[in-house]
Write the structure tokens for this entry.
Amino acid sequence: MAAASGGWPGRCHDGRVSAEDLEKYEADLELQLYREYRDVVGLFSYVVETERRFYLANGVQVTPRGVDGEVWFEVHLTDAWVWDLYRPARFVKDVRVVTFKDVNVEEMAKSDLEVPKSGGFEG
């Protein structure tokens, strides 16, 4: 029986997708996303983590804000890449994130990003 159109593998004739097929589909998406991350990480200077997303960026500004004892953070990223399985375009010119949770910003040392010239990695 041929799979129904729509891009989902293993669809039944009534349009349902098994849990196993859905897990395999998501695992494939995660692998593709990891490979893309591996290919682009060297283009960026910062790793930024919020409670909802993981970003690579070349410009980061975190500004604490507050009103009536409530504190939140406004995060502005420029030239960014977003780790998101379901986002079709992960490169973003300008991102603004508002969060009440922790924000982790780490500047990557360029030497940490270089792939060794010899040993261990084979294409």
Q: What stands out?
A: The two ends are 36 Å apart (CA to CA).
